[in-house]
Amino acid sequence: MKGLILKDLYNLSKQYKIVLILVVFYLVISLTNEDSSFFGGVVTILMVMQLVTAIAYDEKSKWDRYALAMPISRTDLVLSKYLLGGILLAIAFAANFIFGMASGSEPVETLIISVAMTGVGLLFMFLILPFLFKFGVEKGRYIAMLIFFIPTGVLVIVSKMGLQLPDEDFMSVFPVIGILVLILAGIISVSASLAIFKKKEV
Amino acid sequence: MTEALKLVNVSKHYKDFSLKQVNLSLPAGCIMGFIGENGAGKTTTIKLILDLIKRDEGRIFVLGKDNQKDLKSVKENIGVVMEDCFFPENHTASSVNKILRGIYGTWDVNRFNSYLRQFSIPADKQIKDYSKGMKMKLSIAAALSHDSKLLILDEATNGLDPVIRDEILDVFLEFIQDESHSIFISSHIISDLEKVCDYITFIHKGSIVFSESKDELLNLYGILKCSEKDFSRINPEAVIGYRKSQFGVEALVKKKLVRGNFVIDRTSIEEIMLFYTNRSKEKQLEVRH
Q1: Which ipTM value was assigned to this complex?
Q2: Per-residue confidence band for B262, with pLDDT thresholds at 50, 70 and 90
Q3: CB of A11 within 8 Å of any CB in chain B?
Q4: Which of B109, B132, B142, B283 has the greatest number of CB atoms lying within 10 Å of its CB?
Q5: According to CATH, what is the number of the domain B3-216?
Q6: Which residues of A touch B82 (CB under 8 A)?
């Protein structure tokens, strides 16, 4: 497993220049618009997209075929992608938190926003990974965009309709619901990915 | 464990191609060449051995273990080299060293480095800038740098110049010096296989035509050249296939079955394969008429 993560990180490290430029770009936009959540959201999505890029590298070099001839099981291959996603989102979380603190927000508020963003990132990852395992990166990218835009679109429409904000009680329960949803989504996602990949002809 | 590789009645069905009842057995310490035309089923067979695709029937044993139950335990001892180089192209030999060290329990960093030196592979050049020969040598270095007991090679020497091929064959011969090591190599560069193999398995359109020791094959078969008139007098069951030329007939025969006084020349594995392949083409033509 360690070798797999190393390979992915090495692949992605080649991209660091592009990622750095994008990060600086969004940083500037965020600062000039005084909207710290924009930066946080973008960095999180960027990290999830890096995960997709890592899978694309594998596909291009037909890595899976070679990997399965090594002491690596199909389970290892699947779990290594979730682990990589976790590592990337941890980086996003750190970036989020640091940025939040640096732009002068309160620590607790920054923490909550960073956690929430990372939670959304994890959810997004849980949703798209089974599709990527099933359909590959080419088709998977379209599905990933759909999964991202549909809920975002719904949220935008809902907010435009001017509904009342949920009350205090709901807001205090929300984190617990959020965590439960995340755990459930994680379990379903990993089980689905394992089932899909075990049958895949490589 | 006496057999490095054993396939029993293995079948795999696709829409327009089937692998049918494949049986083969590679004794430990030997090299088996796996020959056949393009599309005959060589790569499919190898993918089945490595459980990359699921078989429909039969059983496969790799280093004595059932490949659907215990394969992970023997993968440490299998070295695989395929035609394409599977390392991502922006990696280097040193990054490959680090990655494989984190995957194989028996990875030997020093052995890998010494193979890199032997093959003149620079440690920090990106794989996308390698020549085809270098990519192949890197794959072979990787396959030999952990505790491999069975080397599986799928068209590994395609597209390589004769000098590199010779170098690589020497490396294989060195590998096989250890009696617990075996090699299963598929290729259609039959001259290479003839140099090193103990056994030859010939697959044609998804079925095994023969799986024999190379020496047996060369003793069993021969090339008979004669006139058409003489050829008509030869008992048909001795003839595998024949070619007509302006000088007469050239036929592949089973030496012991030929009755009469004919001169039979030594044949080669390549000729055996060609005559067998032509025979099936003729049978196809017959069926159509």
Answers
A1: 0.80
A2: confident
A3: yes
A4: B142
A5: 3.40.50.300
A6: 65-66
